[in-house]
Amino acid sequence: MLLTLALLAAGWLAVSLRDVRLESRASVLLRDRPPDLVDARRRLESARLLNASSSVDQTLAAVSWLEGDRGAAITGLRSVVRREPDNRVAWSFLARFAAETDPRRSREAARRAAALDGPRSGR
Asked: For residues 73 and 65, is the Cβ–Cβ distance under 8 A?
């Protein structure tokens, strides 16, 4: 029994480490000029299969935006903020990405992001 639990824990850790490595590599690819969006998307999709996370979904939304698929980018971010209403980064991305097509949604997302930022000292 103990051996089975140890093997399961080792497997979970291996999958988590692979997920982190795939997401990290995809982020590096997105910083390259010009970005290799196809490879970044492939790696992010692999990371999502191993361990779905909001950071992967946010990065996939950014890839969709860079690819010109504005609708997919906004849909992905709306999904993230539904799951995590306190995700300031996702709200900020949504505010920026929706600015062209849905100014009302963009303003609301910017308000949500600002509210999550909290009070700033010196203001």
From this structure: yes
Q: What is the 3-state secondary structure (H, E, C) of 20-78?
A: HHHHHHHHHHHHCCCCCHHHHHHHHHHHHHHCCCHHHHHHHHHHHHHHCCHHHHHHHHH
SS3 119: coil
Contact status, residue 58 vs residue 90, Cβ threshold 8 Å: yes
Q: For residue range 53-82, list pLDDT tens digits in order.
A: 788 888 889 889 888 899 999 999 999 999
Looking at domain 15-117, what is its CATH homologous superfamily? Answer: Tetratricopeptide repeat domain (1.25.40.10)
CA distance 20 to 89: 19
pTM exceeds 0.85, yes or no: no
Q: Where are the domains of the chain?
A: 15-117
Cα atoms in the Cβ-side hemisphere of radius 13 Å centred on 108 = 8
